[in-house]
Amino acid sequence: MLPGLLLIAPALLAIALLYVVPLARSVIFAFVDEGGGLTTAHLRTAVELYGRDVVFTVLVALASLILISVVSIAIAGYLTLGATPWAVTALRWLYRWPLFIPFIVAGQTARSFLARNGLMNGLLIDSGLMDPAMAQSLLDWRGLVLTFAWKQVPFVTLLLAGAMASIDRSTIEAARNMGAGRFRCLIEIVLPQVRGTLLVGLILSLVTIMSVLSVPMMIIAGNPTMMTSMMAHRVTYYGDYAVANALGLFSYLITAVAAYAYLRMTLTQHTEGAR
Amino acid sequence: MALATLARRGAANLLPAVMIGLCAFVVFGPLTNLFLWAFAEKWFFPARYPTEYGFDFWQRVFRPRAGAWTSLFNSVWIALATVGLSMALAVPAGYALARLMLPARAFIMLIFLLPQAFPSLPIFVNIAHMFYGLGLNGTYTGVVLVHSLPGLVYAVWIATAAFGAVDRTMEEAARNLGAGPMRTFRDITLPQAFPGLVAASIFVFLDSIDEFTGTFFVGTPDISTLPILMFNASMGGNYQIASITALILLVPSIGFMLVIERFLKADVLSRIGR
Q1: Total domain count, chain B
Q2: Which of A35, A64, B210, B243 is the Cys-Cys partner for B37 at CB 3.0 to 4.6 Å?
Q3: Which residues of chain B make contact with A244, given a CB cutoff of 8 A?
Q4: Which residues of A, range 136-155, sit inside 8 Å of B by Cβ?
Q5: What CATH number did the domain enclosing A73 receive?
Q6: Are residues A105 and B46, on separate chains, in Cβ contact within 8 Å?
Q7: Could you give the dihedral angle defined by the CA atoms of residues B159, B160, B163 and B168, in that order, rounded to the nearest 10 degrees?
């Protein structure tokens, strides 16, 4: 046992100093006042000043996750069940690109692409699909949802398509032979079998959405905005780590709720399976 | 008859064609936009497209002693140092996790999973707060350390999977033939795990090159990397400089996307997280 411990000790020490200590500090300093006593003042300030931003963050995250699930299921489903070989090949090549593009670059492209005078509106107007008077900026919650989805759909699709490829083809063939359409097959046969993978992908996406700072800072100019942006604002403009940490607690809480829901769901699945 | 078949085939291909076209627009539309801005000399409202193209802004970005060169060198050096530090810690840790007896192995794996399972922004904020007291804010050491947190997590996961995929019978054969443990590790284990370790290094390098949040809290305003340069240009309304920097940032990402599958084999990939 000793050689193993010796080999892993440096990495553990590094993770303790760079992760466990800051994590503990982020929780503790949300409750400690200047004199060193316990207080809930920071939490109250956070709710008072940034309550709207917390609600905004939750709504944007939910909307993003819904969009991510729908598009990922559609793409992964087509990759698994699609009947047009050239289209499947093209889609497989296409969908991965945003995965390798840094968030900060995605933020910059969204900032100029989705603006009122951006390229998207320009192309839509020129193709006759949109009236110039209808052009509006998408640089609000919609821009955030679109950018988060643009970045995370390839990730979730990659996981989903992998899971779909490894399920038993015979159930699909059987359903197809009985006359089930492709769409019904996807919803009733394939999707229930990859539900766990989808949930893992969505939780990891939620953590990403709650962690990314550059995208909300670049897309949203005013209020309300994402909690990440407000935490940075609190630290850089006021040097107020206490309220920033209190806000951080809310972001842990939101992720923890999602993780708890996932664990409960998998646990009930296991007990059902055991029966 | 032939015409009817052709028409039917055309109709069957129409819907997929529209769908692929839409996907291509969604994926490449924003990227095209980036290219237009990078080469736009003049693009003012109400013009819907640039009115003049050219390389003026490229010259401004790349003239000697311009900020872009400093940021580029900073980014590359910080990324290389992050790879060095992360791999130096992760290779022994990955070997121990994959092959040796460890107490509470599941707990240790969990600790290396946690940083990806919870939002990282409060962590970066508190690292900056700690580093401020230690005088590490605005130093290269500080930035390399903060980049090593996500780096170490990826590196440990992939290194563990890579060592786990090594064929043990070959090691046993080497030992039976009289090779010592160090020689067996050097000549048998390491070469087999090597592609996985290269993949881990690539991931850590990319993650560090693209890292924004940690650098924003720990490095600025003293240390500027490419993402920080891009962010400042964009917030200052200089979309040309921002787009050119963004294109530079895309080069390693796209380049590695094309080679990563060669290093990250399916047998290693399927073991990540175990």
Answers
A1: 2
A2: B243
A3: 122, 125
A4: 150
A5: 1.10.3720.10
A6: no
A7: 180
